[in-house]
Every structure is written in structure tokens, then in C-alpha cells.
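Example for tutorial group B:
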């Protein structure tokens, strides 16, 4: 039997996305989970223990075709919650990165995300009901030396959601919440080739369970945004008063290849 509530969670095979999907299933949502890897099938098996309908989709959300495949898999169901969480990291110096690699970060983190929002939000606004959680980052407030494209892509998301929230403010039954975590203990740093960095090796990263709980709670309260964790809240406050050159140098110490050695 189908639940009367339906959620989409992207980037849901592991990490924050998987934990968000867990919370959705526990709260009685049927959940469409999406990732660009076969592991999404195993995630679906885990999530079915909560008794709702779980639909896994393997799709590349850096492409319009991938987002369209996700939307087609809804079979026209009303979407009550969208957790736009899919994202891609990329470490190392910008001049050493391939065009293909940095373009994929931009296409996943920005193009695919805002295309999905543009497809899902009109129906929510038309009926004045729906909740959206978008995973931004504290990184969006910091010039990201040795993570320049990633941080800049999150800056786009952090500010884009601020603008979009204002544009749809008359539809007060629709909320857009931006989740802004700091470093989280997920596969992100491995996939971004950052395991030899200070931040990649740090044991003070947040637990994805805690980050997902923060985001899910803020979304359900209709809050505009949330810095997840007290360290991140403090960092968010400091970025507003610290010169960009200082922030960039601080980030270099965290993210420069080899900074985690010795």
C-alpha cells in the first residue's frame, strides 16, 4: 500500500543522503532515492525495513537526462518533500584539474540541482504545499584554496537558495531550507581525492546522522537555513568578518595536498 506522503532524496546511496532517506522512511514517506552508483540498490534494501515503498534509481544527476529519468520514476506522484543532496567534491590545485573533472562538479552541484528545483517547485507553489531541503555548505562562504571549484559551487547554492526563497515567499506553504554542514565523515574526501589533506585526515568531522537530523528538523520547521554543528555555526559567524585572503590561506592549510602528512 502506498503512503500518502512522497519524498525524493538525491545522493542517497551513502552519507547524509542515506541518513535523510532513513528519516523520511521512518516518518512514513514513500521514498524515491537516487544516486549515480549501483550501491543505491543496497541502500533501498536497507530502507525497506521501515515499511514504506522505496524506489531506487541509478542516474547521473550532472545531466539533464539523469534528472529527467529521476522525475519519470515518480510516475506523476505528488512530491511532498525534495531533499536535493547530490553533490561532488574535487580536491587539488585548479590548474592541475582536468576540464572533465571540474565541469562534472559544476554540472552536479549547480546545473543538475537547479534544474531539479525548477522542475519540482512549480507544482508545489501551485498547490501551496511542499518542503525542499538543499544541501549547501559552510564551504560556500570560504574561498576554497585547493578546492576552488567545489567551494564556489556551494557558494552558488547557498546564495541561489536565498534568492529563490524570496522569489516564492508568497507561497507560504512551500519552504526551502538550506543545510550547511562543515566537513562530514563520509566518502566525500575519498571520492574528491583528498585523503592526504589535513581536513581529509581530521577525526573531528561531523557524523552524517547528526547532520541529516539537523537538516530534517530544520526543514520540517520551515527554517530558511541551518549551519549543522556548533563549530560550523561559529565558523559561519567568523566568515562574515574575516578577510577573504585570510580565509583562503586558512583553507589552504586544510586542503592542500600533503597537508595531512607528518
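The residue assignment follows.
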Amino acid at each position: 500500500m502506498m503512503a500518502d506522503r512522497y519524498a525524493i532524496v538525491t545522493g542517497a546511496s551513502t552519507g547524509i543522503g542515506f541518513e535523510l532517506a532513513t528519516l523520511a522512511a521512518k516518518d512514513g514517506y514513500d521514498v524515491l532515492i537516487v544516486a549515480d552508483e549501483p550501491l543505491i540498490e543496497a541502500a533501498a534494501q536497507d530502507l525497506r525495513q521501515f515499511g514504506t515503498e522505496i524506489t531506487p534509481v541509478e542516474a547521473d544527476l550532472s545531466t539533464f537526462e539523469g534528472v529527467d529519468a529521476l522525475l519519470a520514476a515518480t510516475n506523476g506522484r505528488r512530491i511532498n518533500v525534495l531533499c536535493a543532496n547530490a553533490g561532488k567534491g574535487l580536491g587539488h590545485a585548479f590548474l592541475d584539474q582536468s576540464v572533465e573533472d571540474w565541469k562534472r562538479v559544476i554540472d552536479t552541484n549547480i546545473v543538475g540541482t537547479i534544474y531539479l528545483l525548477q522542475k519540482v517547485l512549480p507544482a508545489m507553489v501551485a498547490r501551496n504545499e511542499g518542503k525542499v531541503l538543499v544541501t549547501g555548505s559552510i564551504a560556500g562562504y570560504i574561498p576554497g584554496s585547493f578546492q576552488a571549484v567545489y567551494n564556489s559551487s556551494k557558494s552558488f547554492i547557498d546564495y541561489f537558495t536565498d534568492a529563490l526563497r524570496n522569489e516564492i515567499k508568497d507561497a507560504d506553504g512551500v519552504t526551502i531550507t538550506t543545510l550547511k554542514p562543515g566537513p562530514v565523515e563520509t566518502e566525500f574526501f575519498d571520492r574528491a581525492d583528498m585523503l592526504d589533506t589535513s581536513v581529509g585526515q581530521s577525526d573531528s568531522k561531523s557524523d552524517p546522522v547528526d547532520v541529516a537530523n539537523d537538516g530534517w528538523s530544520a526543514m520540517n520547521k520551515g527554517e530558511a537555513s541551518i549551519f549543522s554543528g556548533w563549530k560550523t555555526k561559529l565558523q559561519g559567524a567568523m566568515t562574515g568578518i574575516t578577510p577573504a585572503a585570510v580565509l583562503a590561506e586558512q583553507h589552504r592549510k586544510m586542503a592542500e595536498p600533503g597537508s595531512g602528512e607528518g
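The mean pLDDT is 91. Compare this with the pattern of hydrophobic and polar residues in the output above.
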